[in-house]
């Protein structure tokens, strides 16, 4: 007798159908975000070929391209699920993977005085920036985005903090857009501090590491000065980036107590379990950072993981841009510009004072 075909259980069939349906819902929006990502990366590559440095990174280009597309054409309902998935879940995976590129050894070797200065600069800048933003009447979540962006690592910090505090995509896009503009101006203007402040090459490297937003921008700001400035600036910048983990964990504990904003805001619960207070991707980030420090992640795997994290972040920024109405940005532009500028000036002042106070030479 011929063998009978295996009978599929109804639950198995339903599960497969649900999975296929979910993928079908995500695919149009996800493909759109990937197309924007590919264009942004290609533009950055062209920029590097022409100038030698990515003054405007693919991450920024992706959100600007997304905003431009959203202004000219509103994606229909079939794109919404994929865009939302790219803006949230893809970003969470990217933040987790960033932990694989962090090693505690370089931080310990840099010395206690410099480490103390970096931590102090980040904490003081966050507090001062929040005060400036709130004084200008910005919402508390946007104030936190701008403060963390200025204090830690610009766009990447904003992208990492946003899902933790439940920030609106419009606030994220506005914060990144204006922070990106000033980030480029910092790269162009910071070398003036060498003659004006009388800084040594080492001191200038510390200043660049404390104030410039992205690692590629630190290279662009220090390479024209000297190799020493580049090495010091890169080390300080990497240590500063590591502050993102503790800051995001602290904000995850603060998030349930933030006030609701807007008509659709929801009051945060007063009591939550640990795994809801500390998001899974932050735990993943810390786990990978620990594994990297213990030598459990081979050196050969670090660069590919960091590259993948960078690409996924660009995808999520493309999604954020696609969800932003540029008219909203125009309405908040003046206040956000003042807030970001004021926060950046505070960061510069704090950094100069710390360099002088710590006697770094």
From TrEMBL:
The record's principal subcellular location, in a coarse class, is membrane
UniProt cross-references to InterPro entries, sorted A to Z: UPF0324_pro
Is the Disulfide bond keyword given for this protein?
no
TM region(s), chain numbering: 52-69, 90-108, 114-136, 143-166, 172-194, 206-229, 235-256, 277-295, 301-324, 336-355
Give UniProt keywords alphabetically.
Answer: Cell membrane, Membrane, Transmembrane, Transmembrane helix
Q: Which GO terms describe its cellular component?
A: plasma membrane
Localisation per UniProt entry:
Cell membrane
Q: What is this protein called?
A: Sulfate exporter family transporter
Q: Which organism is it from?
A: Methylobacterium symbioticum
